[in-house]
Design a protein that fits this description.
With 319 residues, the chain is mostly beta strands. It has 1 helix and 28 strands. 1% of the residues lie in helices and 50% in strands. It is globular and about 45 Å long.
Length: 319
């Protein structure tokens, strides 16, 4: 079954949840709508029109310069949308691109092939494939860290692969829960959170020792993960329960916040979280201080991934 149509494994809730540094403005929030084939910026007031991409986007990731990269599993392609909101280029990909992550310098993309069970490193400008590694079945969420490593959720193997981003050599493979999908790093990079869709739990990885710290209940079908700016809270979308679980650093459950229907991707910007609700075609905006939904914003059909792109540093703050 192709991931673009699968309810149990359809979209990378690949999150880039970077907190803005001092001197920065508000983060930009973008939502990818698979059914509508569009990406929309929703933080502007009243918002900007969607960028029509065609061939339902699946994975979504952002480079530090604000360029968005979206995978199209059914079209064997990757679209780059520039910071100006226009399509910058379309990269062809042999296979079924799904999960995607960007290198720290923005020059390389890491792309998982859902059908082939491979991870490719490609040039972000030309799309040229530089290296390919075989990993587990149905690679879903991908995350890179400051050490240059790539973490890949192997949904079909109930495991997590850790690879060297330069050589693509496998450094470790760790067992997690059933059907791991979404990944999120803590702000300090010391922990990786893995959402396991079929076992309804969250696995926590020590990224220094590459060991499993804990596995705790997370709600029904945990599909998206993000952390608060200080790393003190972990947000997990419960796809089948229409809610977001809030856990603290000790992994204790602090509450559940009702949102829209079939929530998937989640991203954090400042004191707010944004949740893409696939079935209700909207985005829930959550106040993280009060732990409640404060509004809903309509978006094109089938929103499934959301990303926060840090605003550029203002000139006066840079001096």
């Amino acid at each position: 079954m192709k991931p673009a149509r699968a309810r149990s494994g359809a979209l990378l809730a690949l999150l880039l949840c970077l907190a803005p540094a001092a001197g920065r403005g508000e983060d930009a929030i973008f939502v990818a709508s698979q059914e509508a084939g569009a990406v929309t910026r929703i933080d502007a007031d009243p918002g900007t029109g969607p960028v029509l991409l065609g061939a339902g986007p699946a994975g979504l990731a952002a480079a530090a310069d604000g360029t968005l990269y979206l995978t199209h599993p059914d079209a064997a392609a990757i679209t780059a949308v520039g910071p100006d909101g226009r399509i910058a280029r379309r990269l062809q990909f042999r296979g079924q691109p799904f999960g995607i992550a960007v290198s720290a310098d923005g020059t390389r993309l890491f792309v998982g092939d859902w059908q082939a069970g491979t991870l490719s490193r490609i040039d972000a400008q030309s799309g040229a494939v530089e290296a390919v590694a075989e990993i587990g079945r149905e690679p879903a969420g991908l995350v890179t860290d400051v050490a240059g490593r790539v973490f890949a959720a192997e949904r079909g193997g109930d495991s997590l692969a850790i690879l060297d981003g330069v050589t693509l050599e496998l450094r470790a493979r760790l067992p997690v829960g059933r059907a791991p999908f979404a990944l999120a790093l803590s702000p300090d990079g010391d922990r990786l959170y893995v959402g396991n869709v079929r076992s309804n739990d969250l696995t926590v990885i020590d990224t220094r020792l590459l060991t499993v710290l804990a596995t705790v209940p997370a709600g029904r079908s945990p599909y998206g993960i993000a952390t608060s700016r200080d790393g003190g809270e972990i947000l997990v979308t419960n796809q089948e329960a229409g809610s977001v679980s809030v856990l603290d650093r000790s992994l204790a459950l602090r509450g559940r916040i009702p949102v829209g229907r079939y929530p998937e991707g989640v991203a954090v910007a400042g004191h707010r979280a944004y949740v893409a609700n696939w079935f209700s075609n909207d985005v829930s905006v959550i106040d993280l201080d009060e732990h409640r939904e404060i509004e809903r914003r309509r978006v094109p059909e089938g929103p499934r991934a959301v990303v926060a792109v840090p605003a550029p540093v203002r000139a006066e703050a840079a001096r």
